[in-house]
């Protein structure tokens, strides 16, 4: 989300990386939250097996984190 360095065009690196989980109010039941929690726990348990990430292949000039195109890093 930091974008690219204006001089080098290289991706700026953040000190921390966070994931935001936004949940609309009055839409989901407790069962939905239980399923999400189980999925997140399973992902965390397998985190050491995840070797690939994603890279941005295209980005708009502004608000790139909403419209960017991604490709798996091999």
TrEMBL record:
InterPro entries assigned to the protein according to its UniProt record, in alphabetical order: PyrdxlP-dep_Trfase, PyrdxlP-dep_Trfase_small
Assigned EC number: 4.1.99.1
SUPFAM superfamilies recorded: PLP-dependent transferases (SSF53383)
Lyase found in the keyword field: yes
Gene Ontology terms for molecular function: tryptophanase activity
Alphabetically ordered keywords of this record: Lyase
Superkingdom of origin organism: Bacteria
Coiled coil ranges: none
Protein name: Tryptophanase
Organism this protein belongs to: Sporomusa acidovorans (strain ATCC 49682 / DSM 3132 / Mol)
């Amino acid at each position: 989300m930091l974008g690219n360095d204006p001089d080098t065009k290289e991706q700026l690196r953040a000190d921390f990386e966070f994931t935001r989980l936004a949940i609309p109010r009055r839409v989901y039941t407790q069962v939905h939250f239980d399923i999400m929690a189980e999925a997140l726990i399973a992902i965390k348990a397998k985190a050491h097996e995840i070797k690939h990430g994603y890279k941005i292949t295209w980005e708009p000039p502004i608000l790139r984190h909403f419209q960017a195109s991604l490709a798996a890093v091999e």
